[in-house]
Amino acid sequence: MSETCYHCGDDVIGRGYSLGDKPFCCNGCKSVFQLLSENGLNSFYTMEENAGSKPKTSDIHRYDFLDLPAIKERYIDFEDDNSIHVVLFLPAIHCSSCIYLLENIHKVEPKILSCQTNFTERTARIIFLKSSFTLPDLAMLLDRIGYPPNFEEQKKINQSIDKTFLYKIGVAGFAFGSIMLWSFPEYLGMENLDAGIRSFTSYLSFFISIPVLLYSARDYYVSAFKAIRYKQVNIDVPITLGIIALYAQSCYHIFSGSGPGYMDSFAGFIFFLLIGKWFQRKTYRSLSFDRDYTSYFPVAVLRIVDEEEQIVEIEKIEEGDHIMIRNDEIVPCDVILVSDSTQIDYSFVTGESVPVSISKGQLVYAGGRLIGAKTRFQAKSKSERSRLANLWNKSSESSKEKSTSQANWDRLSTYFLIGVIIVAVASAIIWAFIDVNQIVTTVVSVLIVACPCALALSRPFTFGNTMRKLGKNGLYLQNTEVIEEINSVTDIVFDKTGTLTKGSQEKVVFEGAELSSTEWISLLILANSSTHVLSRTIVGWIKNKELKVASNIDLTNYQEILGQGIQGEVNGNLVKIGNAKSMNLAPEDGTFVAIGGKVKGKFLFESELRDGLEAMLSKLNSKYAVHVLSGDSEKDAALMKSAFPEIENCYFKQSPEDKFNYTKNLQSKGKRVMMIGDGLNDSGALAKAEVGIAISEDVFQFSPNSNGILEANHLHRLNSLLETSNFAKTVLRICLGFSILYNLIGLGFAITGNLTPLVAAVLMPISSISIVLISTVFIQFRK
Amino acid sequence: MGIIYLMLVVSLGIALFFLFSFLWATKNGQFDDDYTPSIRILFDDEIIVESEQTNHTEDDGSRKV
User: Is 0.80 surpassed by the pTM of this model?
Assistant: First the structure.
């Protein structure tokens, strides 16, 4: 087997680049290694093998826009006379070695004072000296060592997390523990021990529970109050009723001197409820689900004024402005090509990764990525009025109605509340015949016991656990409500390009003369030097031929001709890979190869289906109605038909608007739709559907706004992921059964007038903890 | 039984101390990132060794592996 790169772990092909006894796959990796070893950071490589990220060669002016005061201000967290603090989003962070390298970066650049990484958020907080070191320098340095900062998505990471929730839990937990401590004699039945101590502890409990009542439990009153104002009932209404009954009864006990009341139950109850909410609030903080198109566009653009280039913010580009776009940059607005010709990669917009050739005067839509030399365009619209932005805005306008599952849950709460009131009234009437003095106590006891603590915990824990389980299996959900939406889905709509078919790794077909293995090897070695998508695809394809690559092959005079292709001399023999233009041929699709100045043939790229989809789709088809929409022409119709004969609803040539309307149509027929797509062309449908799942090869890279992100290599398991999600329904039912059982037991005590503080103190934690255990055990230990 | 009153007050004081420690820690970002520090703690020793090495090897940089 061939050697692997010491830095990034990719295969080394041919002679490669080596330093001492260490092989490297490319010059980028080698120079990172040199930089690190010169600065005593060798342990980067001992911690985890091949930990490096392959640096991409980028333009030295790439980060110049950060010098613009208006833009610089957005990213700087804090600035004083000497230093600047910034928080940068570095999506390339992926292992402990990355943390080591970044936190020791001051050894590479002494102007950096400190760097603190946050692995879960993929961010680094960096403090650097202002003098002779700037933000663009910093960005360039990070880019050079393989951690290019992502400035487009910067905005959201600056939002701080809401800490008040933790404070609330802390206060409730403190009160719970303390009150339990001095209620202990009560539990042991020693209430007649010393009346003085008893009233002293009672008053202590009273004072300590005040912050719990007023601070920790506040959200419940607010929510219940809002619901009542809109003449609705939600789960917080019976909770609030229970809280107030519990607290009022306890206060009565304390001030009448008849005991410490239920303060321990009260604090514990709030504590458990908050823990449940906290568990449900888990989110994948480093992923973003609600990106808008601006996080996709560059922050600044080169504008040409009087034949001079100047960097301006993207918002300042007006219709008619001339702009320059460099290799690998995103076209920020709909533009017309002014230069002669260029190539645009629309992969993010359409999912199609083969670049499109554009000639002078042709319209280029916003969102394409330029491939080739620096090119001049004229803006046709402002960025926010581009076709892409329109599509995005249209889809976000069609916001979803309140989820039906939430409505179901609220209806359950209503029944619950009605039930509680009936029981309370009935017991009051019964006690009126037996003992009139007991009426108030009994009614209050019923309200206390009926407080749906266990009921309120079942949902957050069941769905919280399910969400974690799905996350482990590659499906990251925006929040727990998505699970309920998934469980109500009737129709699943797939996008084809980039979703069912592979995005970047295309199927390669070579047309042309029969090539000898030496010729293949020379093509392989040339293509391996380039980071272009098609070169990588060609490399992967030729590698499958399993040729023996001798290590004495030299590549010299390597050149990348932007917009055309690559060339170099392999053992002195000129080899070229490029488009028709680079071969001086008439424009034609395909990537041509020439060896020794003679055109030998061309590569054609076709989409290839992801692995293991047939089984998954046929299983899905038995449970859901499956649809496939494709933006492509019908050339792949036969492929689709042969691969998935069961699927009848296959539509081609679907524009983004068509996909949106298709989803809307299904919904108007009462169907509940799950849309699975990957590109911006699906964003309308993703937002319209009840559940929009974005497929992504790399979850930290851009994906359209959605309710969930699914790792592409887990797509073939979608079927079992949906089953896991459906299983949550069963577990929820079990939990509900248990909590109703607890409520009935409690009601038994309450109606007969036997609900002592001790019974409440035992029943409350048992019911809560058992619900937590049931949901966790069932979901985590499911295969 | 007078000692019970004192013990109750002391226990409350200790509990309050922990409550305020918790609030203080939360406020200072102790719970913002629950993963990175667990890795960072493993680096410490190495960094000291590294920096010593760089000091020593200033004259004979070739010795460094």
Answer: no
